[in-house]
Amino acid sequence: MSEFDRSLSTTPRLFVQAVLSAGAAITLDAPQSHYLGSVMRRQPGDMVRLFNGHDGEWAARVSAVAKKAVTLIAERQSAPQEQVPDLWLCAAPLKKGRIDWLVEKACELGVARLQLVTTQRTVVDKPNLERLSAHLVEAAEQSGRTAVPELPAPLSLAQLLKHWPADRALIFADETGGDAMAAAFARCPAPAAILIGPEGGFTSPERDAIRAHPGAVPVSLGPRILRADTAALAAVAVWQAINGH
């Protein structure tokens, strides 16, 4: 690692919407400008790392600092765009705090999409997508990811099953039992998705509907009773490890 690259490892890292390329000028929005100028005390000439989800990470130099607008010039790509494993996490919305933690860790673990799924026992029917999107961005900034997971509008379980892509395995974490994780995950490389129910689990009719779906692969997550957020992240971590991601 060069001295330049070592110095970059301690610089602030921000997600931006702008296209990133050599020589591109990027003006940060007011909150980011306040963070960089007033909180981090960056001055003209200082370096910042930027990413936008599709152009990799770029080393950019501060060119101007104003109270509500900090401008940077992109100089060179400091990291390539990551190759994201095509794994979705489909999970029932949880209470604030639990869902925030789940979203953050799902991003850190490298999921491509987080699809919220409402069920009969879901306790939160209108999750705050703006807040959750902000958590995804912050997690990507902190974890070094160059991609931010997709967060589409929530779907009901019936909608999810009706419009499920025919080529994507639907790995269903069934608390009543299923195939062992290791064997099932090895049979389900990308594209794949992991479906986790709410606290209290799926109802019997919901479980029957999932098992009847042609893409469903019921799995057991082991003998212990797991909270929904714990189950989701444990399953994602095991799938990633088994499939070499």
- Quickly count the domains: 2
User: Which whole number gives the mean pLDDT?
Assistant: 93
Number of strands: 12
- Annotation field: number of helices: 8
Separation, N- and C-terminal Cα atoms: 24 Å
CATH homologous superfamily classification of the largest domain:
SPOUT methyltransferase, trefoil knot domain
Strand arrangement across the biggest beta sheet: 8-7-6-11-9-12-10
Q: What composes the largest sheet?
A: 7 strands, parallel
Shape by Cα distribution:
elongated
Point out poorly predicted stretches. Answer: none
Strand composition percent:
15-25%
Portion of residues in helices?
Answer: 25-40%
Report the structural category: alpha/beta
Q: Can you write the helix and strand succession as a string? A: HEEHEEEEHEHEHEEHEHEH
CATH class of the largest domain: Alpha Beta
Structure notes:
With 245 residues, the chain is an alpha/beta fold. It folds into 2 domains: 3-79, Ribosomal Protein L25, Chain P (Beta Barrel), CATH 2.40.240; 87-242, Alpha/beta knot, CATH 3.40.1280. The chain is built from 8 helices and 12 strands. It has helices at residues 3-8, 30-39, 98-109, 129-143, 157-162, 181-186, 204-212, 228-242, and strands spanning 13-15, 25-27, 47-51, 57-65, 70-79, 87-91, 113-118, 155-156, 169-173, 179-180, 192-196, 216-220. Helix 3 (98-109) packs across helix 4 and helix 3 (98-109) packs parallel to helix 8 (228-242). It is elongated. It starts with a helix and ends with a helix.
